[in-house]
Amino acid sequence: MGAIALRQVEKTYGSGPKAVKVIHGVNAEIADGEFIVIVGPSGCGKSTLLRMVAGLEDITGGEIDISGRVVNTLEPAERDIAMVFQNYALYPHMSVYDNMAYGLKIAKRPKADIEMRVQKAAKILELGALLQRKPRELSGGQRQRVAMGRAIVRQPAVFLFDEPLSNLDAKLRAQTRLEIQKLHAELGVTSLFVTHDQVEAMTLAQRMIVMNAGRIEQIGTPEQVYGQPASTFVAGFIGSPPMNLLPGQAEGSSFQLDGARLALPGPAPRSGALTLGARPEHAELLAAAATQPAAGSWPLRVEMLEMLGAERLVYGRLGALPFTLRLDATRPAPKPGDTVGLRVPPEHLHWYDSQTGQRVAGLAT
Length: 365
What we know:
Elements: E1 4-13, E2 20-30, E3 35-39, H1 46-54, E4 61-66, E5 69-70, E6 81-84, H2 96-106, H3 111-124, H4 140-152, E7 158-162, H5 170-187, E8 190-195, H6 198-204, E9 207-212, E10 215-220, H7 222-227, H8 232-237, E11 244-251, E12 254-257, E13 260-263, E14 272-278, E15 284-285, E16 298-307, E17 311-318, E18 321-328, E19 339-343, E20 350-353, E21 359-360
Parallel strand pairs: 3-8, 3-9, 6-7, 7-8
Antiparallel strand pairs: 1-2, 1-4, 4-5, 9-10, 11-12, 11-14, 12-13, 14-20, 15-19, 16-17, 16-19, 17-18, 20-21
Helix pairs in contact: 2-3, 2-4, 3-4, 4-5
């Protein structure tokens, strides 16, 4: 059993008037065997939260429950967890085998048990031919697999990954993501994975925890977080390019923003100040170039284009506000200076409260 419960978890550094609160009452339930990715920008508190689960940071308030027991006061070695760090943390003078076996030797496990566990982990991670090498003889990807192997041999209830792929190049990151997915499918161990990279989050997570300034903005599957962002922060953080966010005034089926009035496919969820969101890939180009866009379309004034191989990004303005459009590269493209007509299907419109930034129920469901 490796279920994790976070109940009103808080973290404050310092005391008195100089105290700085960095984690604000975090609540989350993580099921046994679930793979959860904690994602957010640098400084949002995601690594601090992971270190609190690991026991490397003290808890200021709340409870952390692992496998049905509160672990607030337990040492890391007593929590039945294994952690994979960003910097591998391998002993340079030891072989791969000895690095993987070291924790078990310290725990005084029988030699036969150590041999069995190391060989099993080496087979899973395809390290069998490397067991006698030293870390300096390995590539970055191989070193990270050794670090994962050292965690696997402990057979913990929970794996904790603290940005383990950030030191790898793009190709190795993609390969190692696949290896981590295979590892979880085979072992089924509860896993918490911290990253600032939304691609890692979207590809690895069964559910995501999106954090901002020490608070949870949204918990959900990658599909839920991408398709129905709970706030303007999530909408602007998840997605590349991020969602277009247009602040303005709604009245019936029209939306007045700075310098333009947009016709809506239906009435806005309410009148008054709202922020309208639309992802670049959900906006449809109605004409490659036109001096007078079709009635009811949104007039985008094109400023710049980027060719990205299979797709093209079109940067322009709706009125005075920036708007990005993603196009299939095989389609005819507008030119800088053109004014083109856009349409966004109603199911892909997102509405947010202009004051709180929270999602408002409306045309998008």
